[in-house]
Amino acid sequence: MKTRIFLPYLILLIIIASGCGSNPPHPYQPLNETILTPKPPATPRINGPSVYGVRPGSPFIYRIPCTGDRPIHFQAINLPAGLTLNGSTGIITGRLETSGKYMLQIEAKNTSGGDSREFTIVAGDTLALTPPMGWNSWYIHYDRISDSLMRQAADQMIETGMADFGYQYVNIDDCWMVKVNPGDPDGDSKTRSEDGKLLTNEKFPDMYALTEYIHGKGLKAGTYISPGPTTCAGYAGSYGHEHQDAETFAEWGFDFLKYDWCSYGRLADPVSTEDYIKPYRQMWQFLRSLDRDIVLNLCQYGMGDVWTWGGEVGNCWRTTGDLGLEENRELPGFYYIGLSNAQHWQYARPGSWNDPDYILIGWVGDANRMLTGASTLLTPDEQYSYMSMWSLMAAPLIFSGDMGRLDEFTLNVLCNHEVISVIQDPLGKQARILRQSEKDLVLVKEMVDGSYAVGIFNLEKVPSILNIHWEEMGIKGKWKLRDLWRQKDIGEYRDSFSASIMPHGVVMVSLKNN
Ligand code: GLA
Fold first, then answer.
1. Domain 133-423 CATH (choose: 3.20.20.70, 2.40.50.140, 3.30.230.10, 3.10.450.50)
2. pTM listed for this prediction
3. Among this protein's residues, is 260 annotated catalytic?
4. Which residue of the set 115, 174, 322, 381 is catalytic?
5. Domain spanning 45-123: which CATH class is it, in words?
6. Is residue 138 lining ligand 1, measured as CB closer than 6 Å?
7. Is the separation of the CB atoms in 87 and 214 below 8 Å?
8. How far apart are CA 310 and CA 316, in angstroms?
């Protein structure tokens, strides 16, 4: 028994001991501490995207994500007319009247030093030029969600420092409307006022006040509904009131809408692709007629090959069923969802993203029974793999665990600025699959500066040495490698790179040309 357990480790040691060659260190053997992300320095560091899309005429709100000891003083050089920066909060607000590319320089200073970075605002047609990042209520609060839990989540996004890394959406999922009487799903439950306007349930007394609260922190607010008569949890849907609801969401001040197919399937019997597109095209057109920017998230579980048309009628589209309902098989559920999402890499681009569902780590609820929550059963290595896959896939990065119980480990997974800069890279490419086998997965993402971000995933339950060859990547010569989780340069490599990787773990590196 003992020999069986130790044999793979022994083989690994022998391989490591005999490993030599021109590349330093070969194979790379990272230290496996539990917390990998280095603490941010006291000096300001501006994080988040370098490009941001807005439509001319729409309200603008952007909180500069920046770590470092507060107070920090912010300044913006070449801030276009119509926008104002609050120097102590770093929140930019206002409205841009004319289309165009505005290049500004953002500066952040405190008593320890400063940082500055170029930031481009593109006033045009396209929102979500980089994948949206934030939090969603579903997997922790289910039908218990309330106005006060939403406000707490916004407070916690600031207090935990998540907002300083670029998380900005605070999104309500299902269950904020009135529940439709069971047995009378299309009937006369009082879900709307006399003039047809959607009513909220008693847990949401004032939607406008709620979004004002979220906006007051420089964050954005998201909501949810179905194109069908009821949502997946049986609350009022938009069917027959789509235009009015789009206007109501704008009036209430929402910035993001998840539009969930759910009961629409009872009305439509889709045969053609156009049947699948129809409700989304309609909502997309209504949203675009508003003078408010609302990012549209399609949620229809990948039907009708949504990746081939989702970008025409929305900003991101779920490619699979619910991650939280996925059973663990040989591998934890996120691998199956991630592997399925990874296949559609050609379709992702700025403004249009494949969405493999939320980041379910930390303290999360069981979706099968809509329970309150428990600590994730994923190992630390599995959580690094999860976050690495989502980053390489340029996925919307929406955490859906308990914001009130974020521990140091979970925050270290969610808040590594080098990993996040892979998601937020302005080129907007999703990683292609370089290799996929029973043993390993290699994802390669092209970055705007000509570098590559590479994730080498060990799918086995034992440690393995895995490698990548320049030839299979289509590159040549010497490349500088950096371990992104540990934020450490690891040397110059020629022709290939190999690393010793923990069970179900990952090594995520960047390759920069000399
Ligand atoms: C569907 C969606 C989930 C969640 C629930 C809410 O299952 O896929 O993400 O929004 O509905 O009822």
1. 3.20.20.70
2. 0.94
3. yes
4. 322
5. mainly beta
6. yes
7. no
8. 7
